[in-house]
């Protein structure tokens, strides 16, 4: 098994593609009407990129009800940060 260096252009394309997907779907998280819907959108965004999700939550935590913040508290552990 050998290590293959990823082409920089392909890597950047992948990053921008994930960011665009995340940006398109992130408003659904803030506009979720039920806790189930909130968790569903959270998991979809987490699957796209957990780093983007962490930064999004950090920037928008004042817009998210405390009850929902408690639902996701354990998802970001010390190993991730």
Structure description:
This protein has 81 residues and is mainly alpha-helical. It has one domain. It is built from four helices and no strands. Helix 1 packs antiparallel against helix 2, helix 1 crosses helix 3 and helix 2 crosses helix 3. The longest helix has 23 residues. The model has no long low-confidence stretch (mean pLDDT 85).
For the report, how would you describe the main beta sheet? none
Q: State the low-pLDDT regions, or none.
A: none
**Based on helices, strands and strand pairing, what is the structural class?**
mainly alpha
Helix content: 55-70%
Number of helices: 4
Q: Could you tell me how far the N terminus lies from the C terminus, measured between alpha carbons in angstroms?
A: 30 Å
Rg from C-alpha positions? Answer: 15 Å
Gross morphology is elongated
Got a strand count? Answer: 0
Strand composition percent:
under 5%
Give the SSE string.
Answer: HHHH
Task: Summarize model confidence as the mean pLDDT.
Answer: 85
The tally of domains stands at 1
């Amino acid at each position: 098994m050998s290590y293959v260096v990823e082409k920089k252009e392909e890597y950047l394309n992948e990053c921008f593609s994930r960011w665009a997907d995340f940006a398109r779907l992130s408003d659904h998280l803030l506009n979720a009407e039920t806790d189930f819907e909130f968790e569903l959108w959270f998991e979809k965004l987490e699957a796209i990129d957990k780093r983007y999700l962490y930064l999004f939550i950090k920037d928008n935590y004042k817009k998210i009800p405390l009850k929902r913040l408690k639902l996701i508290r354990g998802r970001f552990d010390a190993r991730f940060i």
